[in-house]
C-alpha cells in the first residue's frame, strides 16, 4: 500500500481563519482564574484527610480504630480524593488531547518504519482523542494511508489499555508505583504485540474491501484552536468522563470499604496468590468476555489485592478486561478475517500473561 | 441542502444527528438529513474519525459533535 499524497496537503488553506488573539486583559484574567483554581484544588486536596476525620469521628461520632469507623473513614477520604484527582487529570489530558487529532496522528505514522513506528504509535495511542466506536474507521484510515499493520495495532492496543482514568485510580488507590508499572508494561505490550503482528505479515487477513479502498482522505478544515477553546476541551472531557464514571468510582470504593471489613484476610491468596501457577492464564481468560471500564475494575482490583491476591495476577486480570473485549472483537471482525483476530487475541493475551508472571516472580 | 451524519451508532453519533436536525429546524432551511453507519460507506467518504458531518459533499467536521453554533453557521450558509 502506498502512502497517499493528498493527506499531506489538506492542512493548508481552506480552514476557517484563526480567531483574532485575545485582548491582553482577558488573557490575564483567564490566567489568574486558572491559577486560583489550581491553588484552591491543592489547598482542598491537602485538607481532605482532616476533613474526613472531622466528619466521621466528630460529626458522626464514630470511634477511631473501630472496624466500622475505619471503613467509613476510608470511604469518605478515598471518594473525594479520587474524584478530585480524576477531575484534575482528565481536565489536563483533555487540554493535551486538543493538540492531537486522529488525522494528524495518521499523518505522523504514515511514513514511519516498523520499530520506531510501533513505539510512536503506542505513545500516540495515549494522547490521540477518539471515540471507542471509531476504532474501525480509524483502522481503515491508518491502513489505507500506508501505516504498517503492526504499527496500527500498537496504536489500537495502547489506546484503550493505557488511559488516564485507569492511571488516576491506580495512583489514588494503590500508589504511584503500581500506576507506573501499569503505564510502562501497558506501553511495552502495545509496542511488542504490534511489532509481532507486523512480523507475521498478515496483511492478507484484512478484509478485501478494505484493501481495495483508495486512501483518499476528505479535505478536512484544520482547526486552529485558541487556548480558551483548548480549556473548553478540558472542561468537556471532565463533563463527559467524570460525569460518566463517578458513580462506578463511588460504588467501587463502597464495595472495597465493605470487603475490608467482611472478607477474611488471605481469602484470595489460595486462588489468586503468586504460588498458584494457573491463576495468571485463568485471570486473562476470565477477563476477555468481561467488559468494563477502568473505573469499575480498579476498586475491585484494590479489594482483591487487599485480600492476598498477587499483584501480577491482578494486573493481568485488569489488562485483559480493559484491552481485550469481546464487543471490540465483534466490531473488528468487519475489517479483519478471523485468523488475524485470533492472532491479535493470542499475542496480546500472551503479553499480558508474561507481565503477570513477571510481577508475581519479582514482587 | 444535503446533510450526511457519519457514525457507526454510538451515543456521540446519535447526538450529532439530533443536533443537525435541531439546527435545520431552527434555521428553517430545506434539507435532507441522512445517517450513514456502514463502515464501508464511511470510509468511501474519506472519513475515519466519527462522528462526522458532511454538507453538500463538503466535510464540515470529524471526530466530534459540533456545537449548535457551528451547526447553525453551516446550515445558514
Secondary structure blueprint with pairings:
The complex is a heterodimer of chains A (363) and B (77).
Chain A: H1 6-9, H2 24-59, H3 67-97, H4 102-110, H5 114-127, H6 135-144, H7 149-161, H8 164-174, H9 176-199, H10 208-212, H11 227-262, H12 269-272, H13 279-287, H14 294-306, H15 311-323, H16 326-332, H17 338-362
Helix pairs in contact in A: 2-3, 3-8, 3-11, 5-7, 5-9, 7-9, 8-9, 8-14, 9-17, 11-14, 13-15, 13-17, 14-15, 15-17
Chain B: E1 2-6, H1 11-27, E2 32-36, H2 39-44, E3 52-55, E4 58-62, H3 68-76
Parallel strand pairs in B: 1-2
Antiparallel strand pairs in B: 1-3, 3-4
Short structural summary:
Chain A has helices at 6-9, 24-59, 67-97, 102-110, 114-127, 135-144, 149-161, 164-174, 176-199, 208-212, 227-262, 269-272, 279-287, 294-306, 311-323, 326-332, 338-362.
Structure description:
With 363 residues, chain A is mainly alpha-helical. Chain A has 2 domains: 24-61; 64-215 and 234-362, no CATH class. Chain A is 73% helix and 0% strand. Chain A has helices at residues 6-9, 24-59, 67-97, 102-110, 114-127, 135-144, 149-161, 164-174, 176-199, 208-212, 227-262, 269-272, 279-287, 294-306, 311-323, 326-332, 338-362. Chain A starts with 5 loop residues before the first helix and ends with a helix. The relative contact order of chain A is 0.12. Residues 1-17 of chain A have low confidence and may be disordered. Chain B is an alpha+beta fold and 77 residues long. Chain B has a single domain (2-76), classed as Glutaredoxin (3-Layer(aba) Sandwich). Chain B contains 3 helices and 4 strands; from the N terminus they run βαβαββα. Chain B has helices at residues 11-27, 39-44, 68-76; strands at residues 2-6, 32-36, 52-55, 58-62. A 4-stranded mixed β-sheet of chain B has the order 2-1-3-4. In chain B, helix 1 (11-27) crosses helix 3 (68-76). Chain B is globular. Classes of the chains: A mainly alpha (363), B alpha+beta (77).
Amino acid at each position: 500500500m502506498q502512502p497517499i499524497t493528498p493527506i499531506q496537503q489538506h492542512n493548508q488553506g481552506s480552514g476557517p481563519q484563526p480567531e483574532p488573539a485575545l485582548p491582553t486583559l482577558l488573557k490575564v484574567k483567564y490566567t489568574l482564574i486558572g491559577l486560583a483554581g489550581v491553588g484552591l484544588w491543592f489547598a482542598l486536596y491537602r485538607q481532605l484527610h482532616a476533613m474526613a476525620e472531622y466528619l466521621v469521628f466528630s460529626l458522626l461520632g464514630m470511634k477511631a480504630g473501630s472496624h466500622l469507623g475505619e471503613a467509613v473513614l476510608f470511604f469518605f477520604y478515598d471518594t473525594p480524593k479520587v474524584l478530585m484527582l480524576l477531575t484534575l487529570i482528565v481536565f489536563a489530558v483533555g487540554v493535551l488531547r486538543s493538540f492531537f487529532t486522529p488525522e494528524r496522528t495518521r499523518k505522523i505514522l504514515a511514513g514511519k518504519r516498523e520499530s520506531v513506528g510501533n513505539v510512536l504509535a503506542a505513545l500516540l495511542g495515549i494522547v490521540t482523542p477518539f471515540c471507542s466506536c471509531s476504532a474501525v474507521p480509524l483502522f481503515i484510515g491508518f491502513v489505507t494511508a500506508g501505516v504498517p499493520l503492526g504499527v496500527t495495532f500498537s496504536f489500537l492496543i495502547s489506546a484503550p489499555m493505557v488511559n488516564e482514568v485507569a492511571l488516576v485510580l491506580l495512583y489514588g488507590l494503590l500508589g504511584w508505583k503500581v500506576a507506573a508499572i501499569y503505564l510502562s508494561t501497558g506501553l511495552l505490550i502495545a509496542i511488542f504485540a504490534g511489532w509481532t503482528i507486523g512480523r507475521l505479515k498478515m496483511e492478507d487477513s484484512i478484509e478485501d474491501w478494505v484493501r481495495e479502498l483508495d486512501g483518499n482522505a476528505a479535505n478536512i478544515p484544520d482547526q486552529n484552536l485558541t487556548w480558551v477553546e483548548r480549556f473548553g476541551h478540558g472542561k468537556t472531557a471532565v463533563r463527559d468522563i467524570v460525569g460518566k464514571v463517578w458513580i462506578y468510582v463511588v460504588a467501587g470504593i463502597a464495595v472495597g470499604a465493605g470487603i475490608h471489613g467482611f472478607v477474611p484476610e488471605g481469602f484470595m491468596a489460595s486462588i489468586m496468590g503468586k504460588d498458584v501457577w494457573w491463576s495468571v492464564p485463568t485471570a486473562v481468560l476470565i477477563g476477555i468476555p468481561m467488559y468494563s471500564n477502568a473505573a469499575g475494575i480498579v476498586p475491585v482490583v484494590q479489594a482483591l489485592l487487599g485480600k492476598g491476591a498477587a499483584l501480577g495476577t491482578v494486573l493481568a486480570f485488569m489488562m485483559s478486561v480493559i484491552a481485550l473485549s469481546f464487543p471490540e472483537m465483534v466490531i473488528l471482525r468487519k475489517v479483519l478475517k478471523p485468523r488475524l483476530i485470533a492472532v491479535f487475541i493470542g499475542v496480546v493475551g500472551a503479553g499480558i500473561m508474561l507481565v503477570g508472571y513477571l510481577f508475581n516472580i519479582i514482587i | 441542502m444535503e446533510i450526511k451524519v457519519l457514525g457507526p451508532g454510538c451515543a456521540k453519533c446519535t447526538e450529532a444527528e439530533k443536533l443537525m436536525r435541531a439546527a435545520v429546524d431552527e434555521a428553517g432551511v430545506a434539507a435532507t438529513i441522512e445517517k450513514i453507519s456502514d463502515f464501508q460507506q464511511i470510509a468511501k467518504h474519506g472519513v475515519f474519525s466519527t462522528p462526522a458531518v458532511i454538507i453538500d459533499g463538503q466535510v464540515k467536521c470529524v471526530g466530534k459533535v459540533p456545537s449548535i453554533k457551528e451547526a447553525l453557521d453551516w446550515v445558514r450558509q
